[in-house]
Amino acid sequence: MSEAMLKTGATIGILGGGQLGRMLSVAASRLGFACHIFEPGVNPPAGDVAAKVTTANYDDLAALTAFAKSVDVITYEFENIPTEALDHLESLCPIRPGREALRVSQDRITEKDFLVGLDLKTAPYAAVDTLEALADALATIGTPAILKTRRFGYDGKGQARIMAPVDAPLAFANMAGAPSVLEGFINFTHEVSVIGARSIDGQVSCYDPGENVHRNGILHTTTVPARLTSSQRMDAVLLTANILNALDYVGVMGVELFVTSEGLIVNEIAPRVHNSGHWTQNGCVIDQFEQHIRAVVGWPLGDGSRHADVEMHNLIGTDMDRVSTLAAEGNAALHLYGKADVKSGRKMGHVNRLVPKKPAKT
Amino acid sequence: MSEAMLKTGATIGILGGGQLGRMLSVAASRLGFACHIFEPGVNPPAGDVAAKVTTANYDDLAALTAFAKSVDVITYEFENIPTEALDHLESLCPIRPGREALRVSQDRITEKDFLVGLDLKTAPYAAVDTLEALADALATIGTPAILKTRRFGYDGKGQARIMAPVDAPLAFANMAGAPSVLEGFINFTHEVSVIGARSIDGQVSCYDPGENVHRNGILHTTTVPARLTSSQRMDAVLLTANILNALDYVGVMGVELFVTSEGLIVNEIAPRVHNSGHWTQNGCVIDQFEQHIRAVVGWPLGDGSRHADVEMHNLIGTDMDRVSTLAAEGNAALHLYGKADVKSGRKMGHVNRLVPKKPAKT
């Protein structure tokens, strides 16, 4: 056994107690690990399946200290953890994936600079801190374009479309003074994502890419296999490996890609398990959650080969009304997050619909 | 939605906090339910993945009351729950599977009488309370035979083989005065088991039978598909449905069967999820744990069809030394129970090895 390999019975600290933390904790339990959740919100979904929950804010140094001292490794379910909290935690306990992945992915400009530095394609982009800078950026990038906060955006939040220069002042006002980035629109046929994993000793494994459809800025469905030529599929996997290696990454990462006539363009990277990888729970022997846990505890990666065609369908808000129907559907696996309050736009669960994989034609 | 159907966010009480409770709690979380574990032992394996744990004995009426009042339905991971505790709990909260299944399965004589009443075959058996009764029973049943305590036996505990009448006194002494049953040996080729499920409205679903190999009285491997003719497979499933319906059963049950030249003989039934059904975690869309939870919360049963050939291998005691090797094996899913102390004969985990299912020959 590698020295770095945590033994069954060790405790994993997870920053964030939402559905991703919940499913990470379940995966950790399969390998004999207990989880301790750190989450500012009360009654977090992950708390139902964790050995311990700390309810505290990220500026509570005493709580962070006690948390870090109670666990053997720290991971996280979201990338927007305050830097000061990370500095403090890192002085007490290893954090995986490491700081570099967080530094890069917490800021859209830093992330795009990093990707461009790897010779990967991104949408045209420019930093925007003033209305004048926005006008300059629009002159270069053109419309339509999209203005986004550099930090702390998710699920379409902190974004404004600019269809013509006249929309610029309102879009800028919507950023509420936050440093922003203007991104040019990409003429893409569809979006795919690769869920990649890298172990502590540099082993890389990627799941088969999935094809994503969004509605109202929120992921609606992911379908595997995605519509990709075999060379596109190869490109998608290799560029993901490239990103993982460049960051000396440990854990699972989601890489969103636009498919265009000029090749694959990287939309964004997420240094964590990813909604578009939920299909792996029912399509693979080892799902993305266990793969992430394996990586962060220093285990070898598991077998992520796909044994079925899957469509993952998110259940948002009042989609929960359909649960009794979905529960009775054949070849369907429901995954609900135990959230008490149904809210519009809130991710409440997902369903994985399976079609057994056809044997390859010979 | 059926009135009996518990909604996401409800709490399931589980009596027993071992590995079965642990895996039931994980399955419950997938459907949005929280679990409250009642367990006399400290730091139970299920506690790592439960919203709440009560550490108390089964004669602690105050603890039982508080537990029952905090949950919406009660289920259990083992059948040997003291009757007084059940009486008390049942007065406060529904228990599923119901009392009849426990009454029948808690006593080997009652169980065999019940099976015989359904026209099912069992080993020849006779109640033994005295050494004289044992001599009489041996005269009828012959040797070899096996003497077992009527109640509270598991994993080969509370059993003694009698190869010749001269062994009788020692075997009887081993029962330590507990009411016992003498069972005749069955000349069987192999053992199979059926994991059956029945919903609250009487829907029945069975997993494909698995073939079991025991070592030292403990399950060693379960392999699917089992060696059975199609008519034997049909018989196995139908007799399981017969048992489930006769008990008005709600939940998952394990039915162990001996395969003989004269047909299938029922070895024993277990009114709970069963070690020989662990393969379903990686061979089916819906595993036995979720199937059990679905039944006890009043949901429709899920799709338990099998998509792979699987060999489940228990990890007992020092088998844990092989974890680092198993972790790197392809097509293998590890399931560890998080038990801190490795003890001889203790179930520490299991591994499911998969072979993708071959398409049926046409």
Automatic annotation (TrEMBL), chains A, B:
Pfam family, one: RS_preATP-grasp-like
GO biological process, one term: 'de novo' IMP biosynthetic process
Subunit comment: Homodimer.
Endoplasmic reticulum is among the record's keywords: no
Binding, ATP: 108, 148, 153-159, 183-186, 191, 214, 267-268
Species classification: Bacteria, Pseudomonadati, Pseudomonadota, Alphaproteobacteria, Rhodobacterales
Name of the protein in question: N5-carboxyaminoimidazole ribonucleotide synthase
Record keywords, A-Z: ATP-binding, Ligase, Nucleotide-binding, Purine biosynthesis
Gene that specifies this protein: purK
